[in-house]
């Protein structure tokens, strides 16, 4: 028996699924549109109980890049430059780091 490869639907395809579902089309007709069985469409729609989820968008804080972000101030991106980039004093004492060898 030959198995189909897994399909990762794009945001546009998912939107098309929800549009067709809200118009009242059957699962089998939606599946035919994507050349899939209705059983592969059902999990995408049933995951949210048949209610269309909100569009995903990034947080304003996550959109910061490079030197604009709080942790990206040091050019090397090292942990030692983190307090400086946050404009805080560093720790005076630190616990020793113990590496376990297996």
Automatic annotation (TrEMBL):
Lineage: Bacteria, Pseudomonadati, Pseudomonadota, Alphaproteobacteria, Rhodobacterales
Biased composition (Basic and acidic residues): 9-23
Record-given protein name: Uncharacterized protein
Top-level taxon: Bacteria
Residue ranges with Low complexity bias: 66-84
Region (Disordered): 1-24, 49-102
